[in-house]
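User: Modeling request: complex.
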Amino acid sequence: MTGKKKYAQASVEAMYRVFTVPEAPESTLSRIDQDISRNLAGFLQEHIVAVERDLSDVEKYFSDYAIPEKPIFVSEQAQFLLDNLVANSVHTASPSFIGHMTSALPYFMLPLSKIMIALNQNLVKTETSKAFTPMERQVLGMIHRLVYQQDGAFYRKWMHDPRHALGAMCSGGTIANLTALWVARNRAFPAEGSFRGIHQEGLFRALRYYGYEGAAILVSRRGHYSLRKAADVLGLGRDALVAVDTDDDNRIQVDALRDKCLELQKQKIKVMAICGIAGTTETGNVDPLEAMADIAREFGAHYHVDAAWGGPTLFSRQHRHLMKGIEKADSVTFDAHKQLYVPMGVGLVVFRDPSLASAVEHHAQYIIRKGSRDLGSTTLEGSRPGMAMLIQSGLKILAREGYEILIDQGIDKARTFAALIDSQPDFELVTRPELNILTYRYCPEEVQRAFAMADPAQAEKLNTCLNRITKFIQKTQRERGKAFVSRTRLEPARYNHFPCIVFRVVLANPLTTQEILADILEEQRLLAADPEAADEMAILTQTANSILAGQALTNKRA
Amino acid sequence: MTGKKKYAQASVEAMYRVFTVPEAPESTLSRIDQDISRNLAGFLQEHIVAVERDLSDVEKYFSDYAIPEKPIFVSEQAQFLLDNLVANSVHTASPSFIGHMTSALPYFMLPLSKIMIALNQNLVKTETSKAFTPMERQVLGMIHRLVYQQDGAFYRKWMHDPRHALGAMCSGGTIANLTALWVARNRAFPAEGSFRGIHQEGLFRALRYYGYEGAAILVSRRGHYSLRKAADVLGLGRDALVAVDTDDDNRIQVDALRDKCLELQKQKIKVMAICGIAGTTETGNVDPLEAMADIAREFGAHYHVDAAWGGPTLFSRQHRHLMKGIEKADSVTFDAHKQLYVPMGVGLVVFRDPSLASAVEHHAQYIIRKGSRDLGSTTLEGSRPGMAMLIQSGLKILAREGYEILIDQGIDKARTFAALIDSQPDFELVTRPELNILTYRYCPEEVQRAFAMADPAQAEKLNTCLNRITKFIQKTQRERGKAFVSRTRLEPARYNHFPCIVFRVVLANPLTTQEILADILEEQRLLAADPEAADEMAILTQTANSILAGQALTNKRA
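Assistant: Request completed. Predicted assembly structure:
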């Protein structure tokens, strides 16, 4: 240590302290830890979604753009986070936060997460993950079996086979879908004769070699936007994501799908993949998965099912029939931070055939060498955390029975809420829940009656007013912070395919009660009567009344 | 609630308990939490990298492939994890774990992580992240400024601008590199005339429209394997990743780079991107970033710098000159779970020009609508956790000064270790450290002397023996569990470009002492004398001796 400058010696010691485990339970860090726990418990017990505060106001706390020169105390930063970040975050675990797919966590996830963070394993290779690698393989095996129901011999052979993987764990559904479509693309244009495969030579030469003008991915209009993103990333272009019409229940029209495949075939465009959806993001519907499998087979296309939301429906004896045909998929996406109730962000894709992942296999000299057990050779990501630990914990602590209760409850609650909306004269259900998602809007009774007898121009006028009102109610309710529903835009057949803005509700939090749901409707009704919405409401009422009176509004206003 | 079955009512209550915050500090969950903390503290204080145990043995704990039907207690699962997972994981924070880029964490990351896990925010949209969104924008701004040093007006204008993003946060360097190259690819073939852009029409039409035969990404032979993966994913094919020769210090040869660009141009292949490396994964060298910028400009290519490892060198006044030219990059990758000392897994890419990210912009109806502040519109991933919170905490608690100490210490320690290796007659340094990474191998003095006078065939024979011995020592040392260095394969010019297997050392843990490093050499020396290595050592010694005696080994063995 001779020859070192004095400041360097002092700083070595400072760093040593920062990286050393604090032994004493009465240490400052332990005290901070307890403060944080208390504060978080308080936050999580409140039933407020978010404090009423404009985001541009919150930005003030995060306006420094220079990395500070001098260190601050951990206690100071903890206080800063509690005051400015926690206090201004969204209470995604609140029972009245029913607008998105981010829900409450089982509380045991918190202490168990500590193990994951403290061990800081890296799943790319066994050298930095050891036992975490077989654990992740087990989780992939369990989800594979949930979907594909292979026998014990299958899993004993493949689950821990170093040269194969039953799937790929990743940060979420988007990467899971991208991984599946990457595999699909590479399988569609394999090495043959003088062509060394698309993975090696790229899409341009692949299409030239195989004599195609393009490659397409087919999915219903309700497909998740990540699929369009994947088409872009994979070099196919967003046009290659071909949206197929749905029926009134937001399920893909199988005949239209087949027609589209035939049409593409005529245009010399390779039908590369067909994607079924098991739980559409906006309406929670499930495509006819079995019929789609047949079409995929007919056209030699990779069959992918995006079950990011709906996959865990397989836990429910009562509802798993909705997933019929999923076992025919070549690949299936699951999101663990959705209905497996694991913290953000982890998803996975499972492959029916254990050899599928080899289409995207990569190696390097210092890790993921051939023949190693390293999981990193077939994942899109490199370094990855040990989130599989939390999935395993959920699967063991809640078990199939626990997840079944969560699924059954959610669907049940959605049906009850749908019935409640049906029973209110001033609301209308837009999509009836198949899983635990529904959409609706505020629409006074006379407007509903007027809509039924309106000509297209009048109906469009009513709809435009309703859209503005729905948007106003949704935004204002969110800003008030007591409850949160999201909004989206649908084009329902029964409203002449007009773009309809609707409230979207996701019922995945077991703590959400019927009383809370009734209160949400009540607040929305009050917001519809808010002075700020008065002008729009006046036009709406006037338009409706004039339709009902058989007079054209245009005459009246002229 | 009438009409519900009794079991359903009971299970509703069970679920209510699981999702409700346990209030009492003496609750079972609090006790489990404390047990976990104690156990982890014990694990982290041990200086053992891993217990000696074969992975196939550990797999037995993870052999169930069926999701359990019945729930188990949290305490039972916690005990299972402590006994089977924690006990068999790799102690990446051990000061003698110096083989990979996964290092110790500052201990304050643990309590602060709890905030992130408990709040379970989703950064894809402000509706599920609120204050976390401006915080993430701040972190992107801070890293942007660290790299590009723009003035206050720049950050006040752009940092919180809802229509722009100064970068994209993601799960790690692989996705960061892929995002940068996705942007590069889409910018290389933009909409023009009748062509609606590669993002819309895909690579096949893009190349046809622009009259190219392909598109290439150029990087040195030491480029990270994620770049080849990105070339595959993006539809360019792995061949499109053109590896350029390096000089003796593993830095790209600028003349060779320029020649390669000219050659590609002649072949009508678009030079789409040039990647500089700021800290090669295997040897820690930094490309001549400034000279590469000039070439990228000359050929109109996107200039990306992969600073996943070396980026934080910018914190050091003493060493930041190594990064000169990084500020000319269009995009720069940083890995936060590497030298920002944040838990696995988070990385980011920053863009010099705030409009760059628009090349990959996506929108959806229910989130990331145009004009929203949602960060999800320009990220490859969808749902993402609030890891930015931990980066911000690191930047404030350690501050520039703290990170500077870590960087300076690491480089200093690598130089000291290199000097130690140099001073040992039976080891040889293969790559001299520029940052905090070096490679070396065990090589007895007489073998070194023999190598110097050997003909190519003899040298190759020596090298093959040395490779086997290095591999044996590295594997056995890892299995023994006291210390861990990794291994990789290099082709150094001074060893006739033979593939040399070498020990690779990454010195990023401030707790690693010179004593530990000396012990690691000592254990390796003992392993070289291990009976299991005796046959190989005998051949090596024999070969060396016969070279030294001026006699061909072939004669002797015939």
